[in-house]
Amino acid sequence: VICVQEPGIYNSETMAGSKKLSGLIQVPKTSEIKDIFALISKLPDIDSPEIFGLPSNIDRSVQRFNSAKIILSLKQLQSISAEDLKFNREKWMAQLGSLLKLWKALVKVEEFRKFRIKASQLSSTDPIEGFIYMEFYNMQQLMERIHETLEGIGNVLYSSGLLTSAIEKDATILLKNEVPQRWTSIWDGPQSSTEYIRTFSRKANAIKGWLPKAAGSAILKEPISLADLFHPETFLNAFRQKSARAMKKGIDDLKLVCSFEDKLIKAPNIISIKELLLQGCTMEGGRIIEQAENRLELQVLSYCYIAYLPKGEESIYPAKSTVDVPVYFGLSRKQLLCPVSYTHL
Questions:
Q1: Which terminus in the chain has less CB density within 10 A, N or C?
Q2: How far apart are CA 242 and CA 125, in angstroms?
Q3: Mind spelling out the 3-state secondary structure of the chain?
Q4: Please, which residues bridge with residue 258 across strands?
Q5: In 3D, which of 298, 295, 316 has the Cα closest to residue 307?
Q6: Of 261, 268, 295, which is closest to residue 281 (Cα–Cα)?
Q7: Rg (CA), the chain
Q8: End-to-end CA, the chain
């Protein structure tokens, strides 16, 4: 961050006085220390977010971040001791009973088991169709692992099940409200076991709704939410492959384009994406603009149309009027999904 900010703040134009320091003050052409102190005393007590290239309402993001830290600290205060991690049926039932009930209430395992994914479906020549079947198949594998873990713990707590080293290891992790590695090896989701199960349930039911629309990539005919998917990055790769085949181009010869204007993109395959969230700026009239201080931190965007086009093809917007906007998996912004270029004028 410092390396990015420093050249914009301290440069020859600023130090020569021809450009304001951080857009706020004029650097005085004096070597008198009293003049420097006088200037410093006039600076505001609170730094403007614009100094660091941040939106005016960044305080809302800071408050959300600080709230999350406080909640985490409170959970850590409530964390169980090493003594509690040792097997004690009553204590474990009190700690893990709600998690077992949550799983049973949210995930109807037998309903998902009714869907059988065939090898021919997994090897479909249509990349989107193959992805949907593979996504559902992997979801089933993860479901079975979670169910096996929780069922084993339940048998120990409520029946005469044997406490094996594997069950004890998983239970110990769940007692700390963390997620077993056996689960995250298939899908690296939320770090809290409770939130992991809630998010799994939502995505599992969503991808089940994709199955009837898998044949012939029928799902592309309607707006889709990338939040439905466990692996949205794989979906975009499948879409890229499908586009490359349609245009008889190499995958590496394509670029991702997007627009919030319907029918502006001319491509053989176009996806309409819904429920994207915009943070740090505002979109009005299909254009990205600076965010006012009194605006909400997040804005739910209208449909975003994306497609892959040949790199040599003229862009749908002039290069000078576009800005690269990163698309992340979540609000934590720890994992980048893809960057897109969109107009800011």
A1: N
A2: 10
A3: CHHHHHHHHCCHHHHCCCCCECCCECCCCCCCHHHHHHHHHCCCCCCCHHHHCCCCCHHHHHHHHHHHHHHHHHHHHCCCCHHHHCCCHHHHHHHHHHHHHHHHHHCCHHHHHCCCCCHHHHCCCCHHHHHHHHHHHHHHHHHHHHHHHHHHHHHHHHCCCCCCHHHHHHHHHHHCCCCCHHHHCCCCCCCCHHHHHHHHHHHHHHHHHHHHHCHHHHHHHCCECHHHCCCHHHHHHHHHHHHHHHHCCCHHHEEEEEECCCCCCCCCCCEEECCCEEECCEEECCEEECCCCCCCCEEECCCEEEEEEECCCCCCCCHHHEEEEEEECCCCCCCEEEEEEEECC
A4: 306
A5: 316
A6: 295
A7: 26
A8: 26
Residue 179, judged by CB atoms within 10 A of its CB (0-12, 13-18, 19+), counts as buried
Phi and psi dihedrals of 9, rounded to 5? -95, -50
Residue 101: Cβ-neighbour burial (10 angstroms; 0-12, 13-18, 19+):
exposed
Does the pLDDT of residue 77 top 70, yes or no? no
Instruction: Give which of 75, 80, 72, 241 is closest to 172, Cα–Cα.
Output: 80
Structure-token pair, residue 313: 């093809």
Which pLDDT tens digit goes with each residue over 293-332? 667 778 888 899 999 999 988 888 877 778 788 899 888 7
133: pLDDT strictly greater than 90: yes
Rounded CA-CA distance 114/228 in Å is: 20
Owner of token pair 């339940």 = 154
CA distances from 300 to 21, 61, 203, 260, 277 (A): 35, 16, 19, 13, 5
Longest dimension (CA), the chain: 84
- The answer for residues whose C-beta is within 8 angstroms of residue 111's C-beta and 6 or more apart is none
